[in-house]
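Annotated sample (chain length 292).
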Amino acid sequence: MSGNKTRLYTGVLALALSLVFAAGSLRNAAASGKKRGTQAHDQSRTSSSTRMTEPTAPQPDISSLSSQKICWGQGRNFDQRNRPRDAVTSQEKYGGLGGVFIDLSESGRKKIYLTFDEGYENGYTAPILDTLKEKNVRAVFFITGDYARREGELVHRMIDEGQIVGNHTWRHYSMPEKSEDVCREEIGLLHDYVRDNFGCEMTLLRPPKGEFSEKTLALASQMGYRTCLWSFAYKDWDANAPGDPAQSLRKLTDRLHDGAVYLLHAVSPTNAAILGEFIDQARAQGYEFAVL
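Output written by the structure step:
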């Protein structure tokens, strides 16, 4: 009987020890798996193009396209419909590569597309959002990586109120000056961050400084993006020299045209002050505010 008890005790002890070792092995495996998963997630941020929405149009061979930098501006020559001629010809030339300068479609008649660049916060985004909500207008807010990290509450509000968040790149580099790998990283890092932290999949890109090339347009298109430039912009980016409200409003209304893509900077107190009146005057002239 004593021998049986000894053998039973020894068996129980061996089983207990084996369970302890097994549990330790599972914990180590889990920790190792978690570490590998984190590393894989970090590495995946530099190859986001494989996980973004695939473009539907046939894509050209990027290596065959020009990398010459184009510094965009809508120009000062206008056609009989008050449209900037450079925007019209650029849309015809680069639209197939995913460039958006102006809406030339028949459905674009009497339509306006509002966009705001958000390099940093100057206290005027909230009143701009207030006006857009009051007037039932949707716009695109192009944000950088720094803005996304610092101004999460405002980004959440944009999304919650039906506004569109666009990609202004992670570090605001001039894309034609960077390699293809860096350009993909600039778009992909911010794409992942906004998706992971705000649940939003961005599809519109505004290249920093309005600088692009044929190659960067096609690269962005491969990553599921359209590159949004503009057909109206004015000097509103200097927060230390805000324009006169009456003169600024006149500039916005004088240049109204079919399919207009307006670029405004949200750092401007003037833009925040005149936005509601601009919307009212544009609508009084028969224009509709649409989304890209």
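Annotation: The chain has two domains: 1-51, 70-290.
Annotation: Strands lie at 70-71, 99-100, 111-118, 140-143, 164-167, 204-205, 211-212, 226-228, 260-265, 288-290.
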